[in-house]
Amino acid sequence: MKRVSYAEFGGPDVLRLVDAEEPHAGPGRIRIAVRAAGVNPVDWRLREGQRLGAHPVALPAGVGQDAAGVVDEVGAGVEGVAVGDPVFGEGAATYAEFAVLTAWARMPEGLSFAEAAGYPSVVETALRVLGQVGVRPGQTLLVSGAAGGVGSAVLQIARERGIAVIGTAGAANQDYLRGLGARATTYGEGWVERVRRWGPVDGALDLAGAGVIRELVELTGDPRKVVSIADLGAPELGVRFSGVAGSMPDALTEAADLLARGRLHIPVERSYALTEAAAAHRDSRAGHTRGRRVIVV
After folding, report:
1. Are 233 and 213 in contact (CB under 8 A)?
2. What is the pLDDT of residues 203-251, one digit of tens each?
3. CA-CA to 59 of 20 to 30 Å: which in 65, 179, 202, 207?
4. Which one-letter DSSP state was computed for residue 198?
5. Average per-residue pLDDT in the chain?
6. Structure pTM?
7. Measured in Å, how far apart are the chain's first and last C-alpha atoms?
8. How many Cα atoms are found within 13 Å in the side-chain-facing hemisphere of 208?
9. Nearest partner of 165 among 137, 188, 192, 190, judged by Cα
10. Distances from the Cα of 270 to the Cαs of 57, 124, 264, 284, 289, in angstroms?
11. CA dist., res. 184 & res. 168, Å (int)
């Protein structure tokens, strides 16, 4: 089978499309014929050699953790899923023709494989940081970097829970944020004052690593009310860095429910072929994403 791999840490050019042995589903696992794989920042962070404790890397390494596809092997002890079922979930080395998943859910009807592949890690992260920041219904949450995949999920899930949201993003994404129910403002000079005019902020999320931790602490009044998933220096200012995943099975269950009820939709901004994995990483690292990027197999 074909899979994207890298034998050394470095820039996008270290990625290669190689012939590899097919993986197989062990106990408690399933294998899918991959139709699409999600592109996440953790993918290029690991490829660059960033030391992310929850994701040890042994070279040569495959790429990707999110995928959607058709079940073609079911491991011992697995129930409730059969060969031929369309599923989405989390595994390893998902930029490939076949991948083994460790957590999965059935795809809701009407969802394409490309759309489904963009949800697993995004929804898990959104649910995790919403729980950690501790904002309650009736309060206000500020989201820095709100137009990307995680931000899009946070805005919609927070709104579903009765939390008011303020989102910051580039000028081109202001209408997009408003369409997700947020009060929107741009980055740049004066953004803190623009946010402050809307009243107190009860919690804040840094999703882009744009160097705004001090400002988020200023707006909330307490570093314990701020959570970052993108700034490794956040703990130096007393802010929690959230890098360890919570329960993916629970996240997939909630994602499937929200999707089936039409309460969650994250657009696929662009799809790439396996041969274009390097371009996908360059674009993801550059930011300014509206929604999700996916690899289509």
Report:
1. yes
2. 999 999 889 999 999 999 999 999 999 998 999 999 999 988 789 999 9
3. 207
4. T
5. 95
6. 0.92
7. 12
8. 23
9. 137
10. 27, 21, 19, 10, 9
11. 6
Structure tokens, 168 = 């910051």
Q: Read off the pLDDT of each residue in 75-82 and give the average, rounded to a whole number.
A: 97
pLDDT at residue 53, rounded to an integer: 58
Phi, psi at residue 236, to the nearest 5°? -65, -20
**Tens-digit pLDDT profile for residues 111-127:** 999 999 999 999 999 99
Q: How far is CA 285 from the centre of its chain?
A: 13
Q: Which H or E run includes 33?
A: strand 30-39
Both tokens of residue 73? 């092997």
- The tokens for 135 are 């904002």
Q: Residues 122-134: what's their mean pLDDT?
A: 96
Question: 28 or 41: which carries more pLDDT confidence?
Answer: 28
Helices and strands counted in the chain (H then E): 9, 15
Q: Helices in 2-83 by DSSP H: which ranges?
A: 41-48
Helix (H, G, I), strand (E, B) or coil at 20: coil
**% of the chain at pLDDT higher than 70:** 98
Distance CA 32, CA 286 (A): 30
> Rounded CA gap, 281 and 67, in Å?
16
Give CA–CA dist 106/104, Å, rounded: 7
DSSP string, 252-267: HHHHHHHHHTT-----
- For 11, 170, 227, 265, 288, the CA distances from 144, given in Å and listed in that order, are 26, 10, 11, 19, 12
